[in-house]
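Please, structure for the following, as tokens.
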Amino acid sequence: MTEPLKIPRFIKLTVREPLDRRMVSAWCNTVREAAPKGVMVITIQTVDDKGQPRGVKIVRREYRKKQSYLVPLTRDLLPDETEEIVNAFANKHPEMDFDIETNETRLTASQRHAISVDQTKYLELCTALAKHKHEDWIRERSDAGWRYGTNFSMVNKTNPLIMPWDQLPDRYRVPDMELPQKLVDVLGEYGYAVVSQDEIAKLLALLKA
């Protein structure tokens, strides 16, 4: 018996009835067009019913009488990137009842490149920035007439992500670990350094001693 294909990072479309080839292609094209360049895996190797190797762009799975179509990714999506794909597919197929989700992987600072400041404090900084960004996003959506709803609906303007940061599922509370570091790197190139208040206090104490 062939083991299920392991896909560590993906975005998944789930529907009640199997999709025809045209709709499967439409889902794949939506991810390719709406996701950042290089995020979508070109093909993933699997085997067909005859045991022959085959490259595919989408993996179909059935669970509890629902059909899921997984598009493999090269990295985890950020919340706004996921929303971009959801909106794009919903706009193209407003009559369709579907769910879209990504894998549950949550990145930590140790999974990114080395950083030049204390990792715990850096992670706290990145998380705080992500929280503020989410709060700004909620305000923008609320001003546009959107509200919280258990299902995503373009017609009713409901989105299940319109909730406080601390109540979001883990997969949507993934801070951007790269942007703050880029700022630190640029400051370093211009001769500046990022120093914590505790370190400044210690330096001042030494100068007064």
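The longest strand covers residues 66-72. The mean pLDDT is 79.
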